Amino acid sequence: MTRKRRRLYLLLLCAIGLGSATALTLSAFQDNLVFFRSPSDIAREAPGPDRAFRLGGLVESGSLERETAPDGRPAARFRVTDGASTVPVTYAGVLPDLFREGQGVVTLGKLGPDGLFRASEVLARHDESYMPPEVADALKRSGHWNPDQGAPPPAASWNTLEPERLPPGRSGG
Amino acid sequence: MIPELGHFALALALALSLAQAAFGLWGAQRAAPRLMAAAAPLAAGTLLAVAAAFGCLMWSFAVNDTTVANVVQNSHSAKPLLYKLSGTWGSHEGSMVLWVLILALCGGAVASFGRNLPSALQARVLAVLGLVAVGFLAFILGTSNPFDRVWPPAADGQGLNPVLQDPGLAFHPPLLYLGYVGFSVTFAFAIAALIEGRVDAAWGRWVRPWALAAWSFLTLGIALGSWWAYYELGWGGYWFWDPVENASLLPWLAGCALLHSATVVERREALKTWTVFLALLAFGLSLLGTFLVRSGVLNSVHAFASDPTRGVFILGLLMLYIGGGFALFAWRAAAMTPTGIFAPLSREGGLILNNLLLCSIAAVVLVGTLYPMFADLLLGQKISVGPPFFNSATLPLAVPLVAAMAVGPMLPWKRARLWPALQRLWWAALGGLAALLLCLALEGQRLGPALGFAAAAWLILGALADITDRIALFSRPRAAFARARGLPRAAWGGAVAHAGMGVMILGLAGMGLATDRLALLKPGESVALAGYDYRLEALRDAPGPNFSARRATLVVTRNGRPVTVLEPERRSFPVGRMTTTEAAIHTTWLADLYTVLGDERDGGAVLRLHHNPLAPWIWLGAAIMALGGGLSLSDRRMRVAAPAPKLAPKPAQEGAAA
After folding, report:
1. Of residues B439 and B547, which shows the higher confidence score?
2. Chain segment B411-423, per-residue pLDDT in tens
3. Global pTM?
4. CA B105 to chain CA mean position, Å
5. B240 contact A CB<8A
6. Pairwise CA distance, residues B514 & B492, whole Å
7. Inter-helix orientation angle B308-318/B272-294, to 10°
8. What's the gap in Å between the CA of B579 and the closest CA on chain A?
9. Which of A42, A158, B467, B555 is deepest in the core (most CB within 10 A)?
């Protein structure tokens, strides 16, 4: 085997390796990229029932109901809001320690045709003052919070207040 | 006073490492023996200075000195001493000091163990290590001084995140950093080799132990982190493909490829350019990991933008070291000529396949980790890439890797034939097939775990076949013991590490069969999972040293016979107002019974019960892998550091330097 031939084989092998890695990455991206959607995004354009995505916002105050599913599994229902829109969520599982009404939450799941979001994961795993960056962004986009003016206002007021009526610089929570 | 001493020691270390870099590089270039000889004592001086700084910081934590901002932010007088001490590296600033301390330790080790290296090579290696230290010391002094004072002193500290108050996590960062920073030495050797334009067997013999040591520590560090996540976070999982986890997996993959390809350089003087490239890559990925974890870029790209100094500084260091390294590589790599010739099907060919697959996996993980960040920055899209992506993209690459892992050690160097190697593995293949069929028969159509069990059996039996073959256990059983004693430790180490991988895959496959159940239980009620009955005896308050807890007492029985009593807790910490979940775990070694206490309602408690078959073997397998690395490291060939080939290049060395 000459050196040239060997180098050719090596290059070929590398090309196959890189090519397969690229192909695998692209095909996995196609199926498994998880997009973040705020309640307003869903109101504008609802994702299909087969597509898993992450829904984030604030847990609406007073919306949390704990219940027991027919099969005896404990479940929770709550609503996630970004001020402009609200999405009802159901989750069968233990809610994380830092899950609170009026605080930021990110959930992973699928939206049913009935408009109910069935979460398979609920993430709220930071300290009390933490706002998930996606949630902060969603709140900003819906015009309810300017982070330069301090902490987010209490979520209880979000559904009733118009964005422009929110006093500037008000701090909450 | 002590904190000022520490600050001074850090500044002194900066000056010393700057001198170490300058003398080493300049002396080696000018072939001036005196200048070169100055590098080693300067490295020792840097080590002393950084160790003094670290000691001062530790002392401030031990006595809870509330005039030091870092202590105030990360410690509390009510904390047990172990966590006060581990708080030294629990914060951003402290962890960077630990990083530099380990770097200085590596420099000291090269200075003291490397006396029989060619002097120009040693000087250049020390100089590159000095340069890296300069960058990070400047980073600490410029942007994250751990000795900043506050005045007036705070009444007490704010406490460490209670999730981090755990013995497993106290030792996780030092082990991980030993791994990360250990690759700085192979990086320094690679840069020195590029400057000299020469890579030979002696170089490979020097690089391999460092790669092995760094890889072993990294394996232990990652395993400890994963184990901690398993028992502390209470989610019942062991690996979440979290960016922080991926940041440690990337250098592990590159380092694994490096230590295999360094063998080829050492034994056959081939793959030189590639090995140098891998050495650059392994340290580059370590730095990338440090950058990802330390810059805050992972929480949010906006967090990075809001505190730019640190992130930009580390990014600058990353560009400097990695960009500089690769630029040097592009310029000088052509100077290295391979001498060993081999056929595609040979031990060398097998190691190339290993490198190719490991690097492909690393590339996939890298893309998956960084893509969300770039998508946010460039396209403004909020995307996350979760476990399904990583599983479906890496598994097809891991399957051929595992298949080749048992065959590779059976192939002779230079030229091999596949059939004789496979013949010696027939019983490993049979074992794998048996495991596959057994799992399919017992557990139904679960192809993933079944393949996992087959892979585990294939690897463990393959390693066994390798050893029995080498000591000729079956053909000449009488001489086997003597042959086993005479077998180099490196061969034992390799087999043990490969078997350790098999044990780990056994655990992973077992976790593929894990079941869980969510139940709302009132005291006295019970629920069944996987053949075990869990009865809730009591729910009560339990006070702790710096927290208050709610504890459930669960009596576990199997067919009426008592197995164990599990007491999962929810703890709330008044300092920092945090709640944590303490899972209660009972292991039978065949399975973990894992229970988590959820919220309480209607006089009952929500309990999450997991039955995790073979879970402990994941981390035991990783420990066995690290043990294999250690065994290989204790090989005589490594300790003696190759006297014979080392003497030969010396005259050539002086000729090249002049």
Report:
1. B439
2. 888 888 888 888 8
3. 0.89
4. 18
5. no
6. 33
7. 180
8. 6
9. A158
